[in-house]
Amino acid sequence: MYCILWNYEVDSGNAAAFEQECGRNGSWFKFYESCDDYLGHDLLKNTSGGSYTIIERWITKDAYDSFLGGNKGGYDELKGKIAGLQKSETQVGTFDLIQ
């Protein structure tokens, strides 16, 4: 399994909208759900507030790259949609599940 971790800093005034867009049934899930190689994602909220972590799960890196390559317009549109809701976005890293 291939995982991507993202960290987002979000103003409290945008938290509800960010959670709606990036949550389990939000725009990101709906965008990815057509791909059989997408295994889902989790949205984690920092208990001290202000930041979120998203863990995306894919079958393989190649599956992720292939899906994004074929859906760049939709991806860019969604990125733009949430850009106004966040102060920053950082890709923490990419990981392969060992067990």
Describe the 3D structure.
This protein has 99 residues and is α+β, with helices and mostly antiparallel strands. The chain is built from four helices and four strands. It has helices at residues 15-22, 27-32, 61-70, 72-83, and strands spanning 2-9, 38-45, 51-58, 88-96. A four-stranded antiparallel sheet has the order 2-3-1-4. The longest helix is centred in the last third of the chain and has 12 residues, at 72-83. The protein is globular.
Q: Which regions are unreliable across 5 or more consecutive residues at pLDDT < 50?
A: none
Provide the gyration radius in Å. 13 Å
Helix content: 25-40%
| Residues in β-strands, percent | 25-35%
Shape: globular
Task: Profile the largest sheet.
Answer: 4 strands, antiparallel
Question: Concise description?
Answer:
The protein has four helices and four strands. With 99 residues, it is an alpha+beta fold.
List the defining traits of the structure above.
single chain; 99 residues; alpha+beta; four-stranded antiparallel beta sheet; 33% strand
